[in-house]
Structure formats: structure tokens, C-alpha cells
Amino acid sequence: MIDCKFHFAQNKNYIFNKIPFIIFHFFRFISPGLTETEKRWLFIYFPFALGLFLIGLLFNFMVVFPLVMKFLQQLNKSMGLKQMYSVYDAFRFLLGIVFPLSLFFELPLITIFLTKLGILSPLKLSKGRKYGYFMLVILAVLFGPPDILSILIVLIPLLLLYELSIILCKIVAD
After folding, report:
1. Alpha helices in 81-147 (DSSP H)
2. What are the 10-residue block averages of pLDDT along the chain, 174 residues in total?
3. Please, are residues 109 and 172 in contact by the beta-carbon 8 Å criterion?
4. Given this model, what pLDDT does residue 3 score?
5. C-alpha–C-alpha distance, residues 7 and 15, integer Å
6. H/E element, 32
7. Is the pTM of the predicted complex or chain greater than 0.70?
8. Which helix H or strand E contains 30, and what residues bound it?
9. Is residue 7 in some structural domain?
10. Can you state the angle between helices 65-79 and 87-103, rounded to 10 degrees?
11. Coil/strand/helix, residue 79
């Protein structure tokens, strides 16, 4: 038991201590290829990207992950199985669910970026709304929890983010 706790604490500290260094070296790697305008936009967008990711992380950790765990507990109970998993397995499972779903919260920034490049427009997003919704439903089913209520809980914020993306796209395009 002590070994598992030490292993978990060691990995957690490693991950959180290395993130600033990874971001710093990523910026150092891409900055020579960027113009001054692109660097300025990068430093404007990055805090928003980080904020949206953290909001997604919080939402998925506080709402989605407990729903998945509850579903798995009920499934095990109905099958007459006993739950047995280590801290490492639980942490790996947590990261496998929370991080991919948190990346979907970057949708508004991606649409703003693609609008600035001229690839997307508010008209394209509005006309393609039914296809966008369909893609979001597929993503919610693939990456979300397995029961329908949990899928809806994941899908509703994604749909709201899509609509926010259209509004922001209209603001940026003007």
C-alpha cells in the first residue's frame, strides 16, 4: 500500500512539475518560425486556451468522472463482481477520461483561429450546424461515459460551446 501511494505521489509531482518546462520549450521551439503578429496572437490566445482547458478539466473531473465511476460500480454490483483496482489503475483511468474530454473545451478558440485564417466563417458554421451537432454527438458517445444520461451531460456543454463558437466567429469575422 505504501509503495502504491509513493508511486502515485511521485508521478503526480513529476507531471505537474514538468508542464511549465514543456510549455516553455514548446514556445522556444516554435517562436523562431513565427512573425511578430503571430507571436502576439499566440500570447493573447494562450491564457484563454489554458483557461478553457482548466474549465473542461474541472467539469470533467467533478461531473463526468463521478458518473462513470457510479456506472461502473452499478455494473459490477449487478454482475456480482467485486471491484479491485490499484491507485495506478484508477489514476490512469481518470486521466484517460478527463484529459481527452477537456480538450473539447478548446472548440471556441479553434474556430476563432480558423476564422482568422479564413478557413471558417460564421455562415459556414451556421449552415453546417446539423453536421457539427452530429459530430459532437459522435464524439460524446465515443469519449463519454457509457450510459445515455451521462452522454447527454457531456453533450450539452459541447453543444453550448459550438454555439459560443459561432457567436465568437461572427465577432472575429467583422
Report:
1. 87-103, 107-116, 122-127, 129-143
2. 46 63 83 85 84 88 84 84 78 80 88 86 92 93 80 89 92 84
3. no
4. 46
5. 12
6. none
7. yes
8. helix 2-30
9. no
10. 130
11. helix
| Per-residue pLDDT, 4 | 46
The one-letter amino acid at 135: M
Quick one: pLDDT at residue 11? 57
Query: Exposure pattern of 121-152 as b/e (b: 16+ CB <10 Å)?
Result: ebeebeeeeeebeeebbebbeebbbeeeebbe
Contact yes or no for 150/71 (Cβ under 8 A): yes
* 8-state DSSP, 34: S
Range of the domain at 48: 34-173
Is 119 within the bounds of a domain? yes
Cell of 133: 451537432
**Residue type present at position 50:** L
In this predicted structure, what is the pLDDT of residue 15? 60
CA distance 107 to 49: 10
- Say how many Å lie between the first and final Cα of the chain, rounded: 59
Q: CB atoms < 10 A from the CB of 170, how many?
A: 15
1 within some domain: no
72 exposure class (CB count in 10 Å sphere: 0-12, 13-18, 19+)? middle
Q: Is residue 95 part of a domain?
A: yes
CA distance linking residue 6 with residue 160, whole number of Å? 40
- Count: domains in the chain: 1
